[in-house]
Amino acid sequence: MLAGTIVAMVVLMIPMAIVWVATGHDLNDSGKDGSIFGNTNADLFFNLAGLALLIPVAGFAAWWIQRRRPGTLLSVTGRIRWRWLLACCGLSLAFLGLSYGLSVAAGLAGGDDGGDDGHWVGWGKFLVTALIVLVLVPFQASAEEVVFRGWLVQAVGAYTLEGRTAPFARALSRVLRTPWPGIVVAGGAFAVGHDYTGWGPVDIFMFGAILGWLAVRTGGLESGMAVHTFNNIMSFLVPAALGTLDLEQGSVGFLPVLADVTALAAYALAVVWLARRMGITNRTPAAEGPQPQDTPSQDTPSQSTQSAPPHADGHSVPSLPDGQAAAPYQGGHPIG
Fold first, then answer.
1. Distance (Å, rounded) from C-alpha 79 to C-alpha 82?
2. Distance (Å, rounded) from C-alpha 108 to C-alpha 127?
3. Where are the domains of the chain?
4. What is the pLDDT of residues 80-89, one digit of tens each?
5. What are the tens digits of pLDDT across the range 39-78?
6. In this structure, what DSSP letter does residue 69 have?
7. Whole-number Å distance between alpha carbons of 83 and 248
């Protein structure tokens, strides 16, 4: 339902635009000081809390406009798979270690001697910032996963041009039936939503694209939520401890981006491996209920036990009403 998706996009964009402007992003003057309250902690709280509100907004858009359960934004089971999320948190800790090591190596290779890296600000100042970060970042990072790797990937994937007979439409349909258009579009939108310059947009795009691919491969957002949350927590806490926390997003060099993408690619491979070991499915659960009396014999699979039609690359998508899309499916600086 194209009209429903367009309305849902508007519903999602309104709070995103409000947060964008309120946090100091001026399209006509990108060099302006982005502080709202003149206090870093207050600005940080407002920024993170505003983004976290996208979770109920996205859920409402799915329920009211697209007529489907909000849980379908999270995974093929319609909910967060907590055991799988916990496993991804363990992998995310390993990602942080690898990312830090590669970032240090990139800095040394680039001639960064770590000159003025700040100094310990003391427990009094640090604990206030740490409390804000630890409480709000999990919701902020999860909100961005729900919007970009959940809702947007699904919205793009809803339109496959299936049934079109024109040669060009049939050729385009073969592409649209794969998850890649949604992954690329969502990754691009995620990059546009950040102010990094230099190689920074490439870093953000690759982050979004890799997590979008993981959402499809694992059938849910858990792996993205985990690594996004841990990455942002550390990316806020370390500069906060050293008195160098700055919410402005600046230029990023090639070597730090290479370190980020390499660490995230390793995380993605580990996630796919662990998902296979744990039997994590990317298919919609079979419908349950009493079978009719004229059910075919046990040797013949019944329609009620068939999974949703798979993408062209073999990854399945959940079945949703009205042609809607299926459920799903930055080391060194905060993504988001």
1. 9
2. 31
3. 2-282+307-323
4. 999 999 999 9
5. 899 999 999 999 999 999 999 989 998 888 999 999 999 9
6. -
7. 36
